[in-house]
Amino acid sequence: MPALVERSAAAYRLSAGLASGLAVCAVLLALIGIYAVAAAYVAERRREIGIRSALGAAPGDLVRLVLGEGLLTCALGAAAGLAASLVAARLLEAKLFGIRFSDVLVLLPILCAALLVVSMAAAFPAARRAARTDPLIVMRAE
Prior knowledge:
89% helix, 5 helices, 0% strand, mainly alpha, elongated
């Protein structure tokens, strides 16, 4: 009997493992993408950040500036994804057995919170680099 149960659950276990692996890949791609955007933001506005630092902006203010930009980008992406997922949930509810629209409504706040944590974790290294910007080096370089 245990062997029969094992064989009957093997397909579900494979599907769950594959879905988990793809989810981990998606989170890693999101981390890399958000970090790249934040790093490009800091590199593009390096002179402005140096001027702000020279005029007395605290490192915490610079970190908040960069994290705020990352949060805005994340919020826009989450809003677009939220709208798309609600439409997709309505379509799937009508086509697939066992999919309910209320399932999506329960999971969305959790997913948005996870996206917020991931985006802030990805943007933090770039924000820390912005806070360490030396105004003298930036002004001499350009």
